[in-house]
Amino acid sequence: MKLLQIIVIAVFIMVTSCTIDKTDYEAELNIETTEFIEFEEVTSIISDDYTISVDALNGTLYKGYNKIHLKVGNALTNENLDNLKLTFLPIMTDANGNKVSCPHSYNLNYNTDENYYEGYVVFTSESDSTVSWQLFIDVVDIDKTHSVEQIITVEEQTNLNLNMTAFTGNDGEQYFIALVAPQSPNVSQNDLVAGIYKYNQPINSEGTFPDPTLFSYSIVDNHTLLLDPRMPEPSMGNHSSPNNQDLVQQSDGLYHGFVNYTMTGNWTLNFILLDENGQIIKGTEVSTEFTPGIEGAKGELYIDILF
Questions:
Q1: Domain match, 292 and 211 both
Q2: Which of 61, 100, 122, 257 is packed most tightly, with the most Cβ within 10 A?
Q3: Is 179 in the same domain as 112?
Q4: Domain match, 148 and 164 both
Q5: DSSP symbols for 185-228
């Protein structure tokens, strides 16, 4: 009987402590996330006979995944041009003059219903005093090509639910995982969407800048992203949640699954990326041991979020 009383008291103290820490933690954070649904103009270009508008959610380009819309018109007649081939190449230049790109749609598709060219770009860093981004856009109109360059600003992504990570896989290739949704999660089961991309090593590294073959990326197809969400705060004991679903690729090229957030706060999305044959490209399992009072362990491949 005495042993049972001790156990009950110990459990009560642990639960009470966890609740107090959790309440104080939430009060300190007071984080609110805004879900952007409207596309607005980021920048506009008038060059030769063309007007080009680059639109994104909230009119801002952020580090991480960005869906983009481009509208092209005739500068003289304001007529919308829908019979073009449009290419889109973002280039980052660092303080030493090194130039790299990031995952992106190079050939943009025309949306006949909405009258714009659409694609995506996953910026790997924000603009600052040492990093600048520039867009190289080619407009191919029948038998002529018109090239446009535009400096842009990439902002820090303050919504950690849209974080990203870059890593080298066990196969030596360079990969990128970017969270796409949810922008503003709920304490419930959420649709979890991510893009997975890969850098295409160029065959010939002697191309003339900006040769797109030197800055080529592709969507990773037919892989699986195993998911293990945890709460790494010491008061949470690195516990997980039930009813999660691993991410698999759907027809939009993105990877879809479910994550069940049982409370607000810090969460770590631990991943294991498997190729089409079930071989591990990156990631390790996380111990299921409950560790109250200790910062939670993370796997080899993870993304931290907060809501």
A1: yes
A2: 61
A3: no
A4: no
A5: --SSEEEEEEEEEEE---S-S-PPSS-GGGG-EEE--S-EEEEE
| Structural domain count of the chain | 2
Q: Please say which residue of 106, 134, 155 terminates a domain.
A: 155
Q: Is residue 88 packed enough to be buried (19+ CB in 10 Å), middle (13-18) or exposed (0-12)?
A: buried
Q: How far is residue 120's CA from residue 102's CA, in Å, rounded to a whole number? A: 11
- Is residue 178 a part of any domain in this protein? yes
**Global confidence as pTM:** 0.88
Same domain? 190 vs 288: yes
One domain, residues 247 and 296: yes
Rounded Cα–Cα distance for residues 107 and 104 (Å):
9
CA angle, residues 36, 196, 139, in degrees to nearest 5: 70
The answer to whether 81 and 73 have CB atoms below 8 angstroms apart is yes
3-state secondary structure of 24: helix
Residue 61's contacts (CB-CB under 8 Å, 6 or more residues apart) are 42, 121, 123, 133, 152, 153, 154, 155
- Give domain status of residue 54, yes or no: yes
93/165 same-domain check: no
Domain edge (last residue) among 92, 125, 155: 155
Domain span at residue 282?
A: 159-306
Per the DSSP assignment, residues forming a β-bridge with 80 are 73
pLDDT digit string (tens) for the chain, length 307 residues: 444 343 333 433 343 333 334 434 444 355 567 788 899 999 999 998 999 999 999 999 999 999 999 999 999 998 999 989 999 999 999 999 999 999 999 999 999 999 999 999 999 999 999 999 999 999 999 889 999 999 999 999 999 999 999 999 999 999 999 999 999 999 999 999 999 999 999 988 777 899 999 999 999 999 999 999 999 999 999 999 999 999 999 999 999 999 999 999 999 999 999 999 999 999 999 999 999 999 999 999 999 999 8
